[in-house]
Every structure is written in structure tokens, then in C-alpha cells.
From TrEMBL:
Originating organism: Acrocarpospora pleiomorpha
Start and end residues of each stretch annotated as Disordered: 330-349
Stretches of the chain forming a coiled coil according to its record: none
Membrane-spanning ranges: 289-312
Domain (Protein kinase): residue spans on this chain: 8-264
CDD domains: STKc_PknB_like (cd14014)
Protein name: non-specific serine/threonine protein kinase
E.C. number: 2.7.11.1
Lineage of origin: Bacteria, Bacillati, Actinomycetota, Actinomycetes, Streptosporangiales
Amino acid sequence: MPERIGDYSLTSVLAEDDHSTVHAATSPAGARVAITLFKTRLRDPDEFLTRIENLQSGPAYHSASIVDAGTSGGMPYVVSEFVEGPSLAAHVAEHGPLTGAALHRLAIATMTALVPVHQAGDAHGALRPAAVLLGPDGPRVTGAGLARAVDESAKDEEWVRAYTTQKVRSPAFEAPEQFRGEPAGQAADMFSWAAMMAFAATGRSPFEGGSPSATMNKVLHGEPDLSGLPEPPRDVVADCLAKEPGARPTASQALMRLVGHAPLTIERDDIPTPLPAPAPPPPKQPRRFGLLIGAAAVAIVVLAGGGGHVIARSTTPVTTRVASTATAPGVSTVSASAEPTPPPEPTSRVKVPGVDMTLLEHPSDATTLTAYRKGEDTYVRNGALGEFTKLPLKNAEPVLSPDGRTLAVFTPAVVGFTGDRPFTVSLEPYGTTERPTWSRDGKQLLLTAVTDGKPSGFVLIDMATQRATLVDTDDESTGGEVGYAWLPDGTGVAVGYQPERDGKTGHGVRFRGLDGAEQKSMHWVGEMYGRRMFAPSGRHFVTYCPSGGTFCVWDSATGVRMASIGIFYNDAFLSGWYDDAHLIVADPREKTHKIVAMDLRGRTPRVLAEISAKDDTDDLLLYYTRS
């Protein structure tokens, strides 16, 4: 083994076959890298380097990124990031096939790696179990486009002979057209991916014949054995194993099917961003609706099945605290509010799947149900007043951005985003997280970090930089409870806490900056409602009353109580605000339970939904989005 390739010091051989050797190496800066040295001499080195530069410029969703490339002794090499973890082939050999969520995670992640390669007009060209590494932050596809880049620049007899020999020795992951001398194009990638998924689920090729020649014959003429492959992803795998290239789905189509093809297609125009100072709500603007996102973006959503990738992570510890000086307001006189305008009468009744629930809706509703969960199953809406589709994930929490263009799908392991620049963030580095909620400008997603059941900090995911930042606080040791909510102007967060006063424990709300430092607190307002505590205008927030009512509404700036709503029945669950004058509250008193818009005097001028008592249980969660 040579000691160096270019500027890189070689440390060991990771893998070798007839046409390449993969080395572990160290960069001049001391970083670990992987170097693939191809066993051929280039006819046109410039053409090779140009193709590698094109591969570098594309997005690296679940692919090992390319660091460098060059030639050594006339032979081309490519330097990639080092992924700590075994190959899929090695993992299956040592631990057996993948099952359940791990298999579904592998299917989505590897297909997500193919989509941008294919969209750029390229192909992987050599997808097989040895080319997938199971890294600590999810599966990574290696070598995308490299064999093809070398093939286009080499074409010498040595390379052709090595590549042909490799196909004969290992035919299980080659597409039928490759045995007919056709190049390994995008359709061949789909066939190779499907054969690889069958191997991952069963430990064997779906065309296993006992010998290379028998396997090749089955690839060309036989039917695949998919008896050990579960659904998902069995149907997608079966279609990708079609003999004719034109009969196979594209990578984008396959990815959409793997994730259930359930995007929200809501588009809202001219939604004003609230001003830092509370202000009257702006006039309602008309809404228009259209398609939200493309195939690749849809697929990224449900990478929340696991194995997402973090583009960057930073942690901001809190080293200074600002003591609260806020005191409870004295006796205040609040003038009676004007009679609120009732919500419009419903014009449609919409039955939803998976739950015995009917929505009563009007096109100009201020707030719309855009998703719901029943037990482990999650349903999202395809359009403003359209149908609901079940996501292929368990225990997923969908949160639609204020402008309706981006859907964040949260699971304990990862959160995925749709949009113009879809991406995913692994949540494993941050421990337990919960309660995803958008900033009002849709630029950041907030998550509550939890330690021993108490809020201990928050994670901010920035949409522009796709970076996640953990902000540590001392809430877990100073009475923190519930979780974090955005302040209306986006400059900080609110969190519940339990203050000790006169030897008694109460409930209040703390206000913190985005650096985690405490700015003020309102110890008198009662138990925090949660992430949807602030009214649409931001002028008020709601809590569970400390006394004298069920729900209390407070002035956001002063902490003066604006209204107390007394409810005299059990299980009056609060789901947030319909508009500034109405809360969304559950009313389970009748045989058919209702979700109602309740004004701040406790009146219910509008029913928003009807739910059968058998389905209106603690595991039914409703997600409303401001229109």
C-alpha cells in the first residue's frame, strides 16, 4: 500500500475490488477522510475533474460529500468525507437483516440521496450494499456518480475488462440492460436500489440463483423473490425491479410513494408579520391556494422516519441571568370590550378519515384544521379545505408554517422540512425534544429540550442557514414547566414556571431572550397554556386561571387580566385561538362531542367540529393553522 496519495496520508484499506481501492486517510489538517483510488489511467484528466466538480456542486442529501479529487501516478482518486460506521453489506452479514423503522429509514434516506443526483442529470452507476454506510446520523450513500465520471474519462481496455469482470462476479445488483451492454443510467440506479433494499430486508438477493450465472439469468428473465420484504416499501421495490427501464418509477416518484405523497398544498399570500409592539390585528386578506412543493421536498418531510442529517449544530450556554423585577399589577379597571364579531356560519361539512369526526367550515374561517393525530397515526391536509392523507410514519407531529409553504414533520429522532430548500435535522444530539412551533415570520422553528420531564433549554432551527442551535437555560432547576412559546415579535420565548411565594407554590410565565437570559416574569398569571398561548395579534395571551375562572386572558405587555372565562363542565380542552376574540375549546357534554369557537365571555357562537365520544379521547390531537 502506498503511504500517500496527493496531500493525504493513508492509514488503512477499507475496501477493494477489481476496479478501485478505498483507503482511510488523514488530510493535511488532520481530518479523517476516505480516498477512492480507481485502477485505470485517464484519457482526459480535465474532463474527469470537471465531472467531479459538478458532483460537488449538488446537494448532498444523505450522501457522503466530496472533498477533493486528483490523479496519482496517472490514476484518478476522489476524496470524500469519512463516515464512521459499517457498510450495509457488513451490517447485514454481522447482525442480520434490517426490520421495521430501520428498514423504512434506509429506503427513504438512500432514495433521497438519489433524487438530487438524478435531477442534475447524473446517475450513481454502482449502487449496492457496500456503497451505503450506516453512520451515526443515518445512512449515507457513497460513490454517487464516481464510477460514471471515471468511465467517461477512461474507456481504456483495462478499465472495461475490470468493470465487466466485476459485473460477472457480482450480478445481483446490476440491471438487466447493463448485461446487454447499456450504460448504468438512472433507471439502472432504480433497479439496483430495489435489489439492495430486498437484500437489506432479507439478507439475500431477490434473484438469488446459487451461482453468478444463475443469478444473472434470473435478473434477465426471472421474477424477484420479495417474500421477506414488508410494506412499506415492498410495492415501490417491486415496481423498481421491472425488466424494462421505462417501466420503473423515477427517483422522485419513488420517493413520493415512500413518504405517502401527502404534502399540504396551502399557499397564503400577504400575511403580515406582527410588529414588535402589540398592535390591532391587520385586516384579513383573501387567500389563494396552489401547489406547495416538488417531489424532492415532499420526500424530505417524512425523513422524520429517522436518519435525518444535520447540516450544523451549535450550543449557546447561558452564563448570565437578568433577575425579574416585575410585580403584579394593582387593581385595574378594564373597560368592557365591544361585542365580538362572530365567526361565519359554516358552509360545508367535511368527514375525515381515521376518526369519526366532521368539520364544519367556511372558506373565510380565520383558523383551519390542517392536521390531526389519532394514537400513532397522523393525517395532513392536501389543500386549505381539501382531503386529509395519512402519513406513513408513526407518532409524527406536523406543524405548518405561517405562510403555508413549509411543513415541518417532527418525530423524537428527526424533524424534516418541505419548501424550496428541503432539509432534515437529526434531534439526537439534543436529547429529548418536543413541542415544535414556528416563529410568526416562518424563519425559525422552536423546540423545547426536556430533562427529567422539565424544560431545560430550547432548540432553534434557522430556515435560511439550515442550522440548529441549542440554547441552554436553568428552567429545569428553577421550577420550569410546560414548554417554550415564541414571543409575538420573535425576539424571545415564554416558558411556564412554578414560583415560590409566601411559602406556597404558584404558576407563572417567564420571558427570555433568544440567548436564554431571563428578561422578566409574571408570577401571578397562572399555569401557562403552551406554545399557542398568544392571540393572533400578540396583544393577549391565555393561561389556566390561578383563581376566579377556567381560562384567563392577560395583556401581553402589562400582565393585566383582560378576561376570565368560567367553564362549568369537565374536559374543556383548549386548542388555541380562532381569532383575537375567540378560543378553540372542546365541549364534550353531549353524545356527540364538539369543538367550538368560544368568545371571551364564555359564549359559543360557532361549532367547528363534531366528534363521536368513542374517538374523542386523550390520544386525539388537533392542529389548527391561522389562515
